[in-house]
């Protein structure tokens, strides 16, 4: 049965994951600036892969697994080893991708993560056996999507070996990325349920159970919409219908999160839950828009695709993971939350403006460029939010160590 013991090593890994978040978002800001004023010493593709892999491996995966291990009471050397391996791979992929892009060393290093994640997934599955708690059910569903993502990555390797057409290799890539993103989404919802209970928030678990039941069988079907031409044919029709249908479970989840936020005392936690509801609902609307025929525009417009990814991964996943992380570490939430959500809102408006030419609109060249400047400014505000969260978490850790020292040795 799951427990909620707090292994001593988990705060260290949680603070490490925040460090990776700052590193990745700082590089993301550099990429935003590059769009406005390109400079010659940055290989854009290399930096983009370093940015995305560090967010996936160092921030998302490390933070989720550390919190899940904590929730399930997974202690001991094995848990520390798997978390340490995830952190080491994240650091190595950042350096490798930044220096050499998708080179054989980068592929080899990042491929190690499949085995490590499998190890972590098996730990969660084993420790959660017999539990019927809703938060654990979301964590287990997240593990299912992690396995699907790994199968997508292995399928791509097989297609490369078979020299399959580029379209099918692209489908495999997006199956991996899409299912990995849903591993984040489902796991973060589970972590938020546990934290909402810990803080005594009113959470409508009936709505969340329906969100889980409807999302799990539908979400994996929508990955073809991320590929050029993927919306065509029977596969594209199924993906489009699933994307539209996912509005229902997202609406149920967003309603439950909004109500939980409304039940919280005035302060950062309640506002954060309401923002989580907004980002989850907006992601579903954008996904449904793709199902209604706009996916092709997003595929051909880098800025519209980035807009969607930022709403999903920075809006919902990062905010939800940071709420859970700071709740455990004891750091303040309010200042960083307002900067994060305000900055992301500004960034989203800028990216939307930059992506307007994809709709065939006759616009002055100044409009997209102004959108890029606005997006870069929003990115800077997001970074400020991350710094505020980080400083709060580290100060809280220092105070905790000071209190522990006083408890052991008395005042100096």
From TrEMBL:
Full protein name: NnrS protein involved in response to NO
Keyword Glycoprotein: no
Transmembrane segments: 20-44, 50-69, 81-101, 107-125, 137-159, 171-193, 241-260, 272-299, 305-329, 341-360, 372-394
Keyword Translocase: no
Keywords: Membrane, Transmembrane, Transmembrane helix
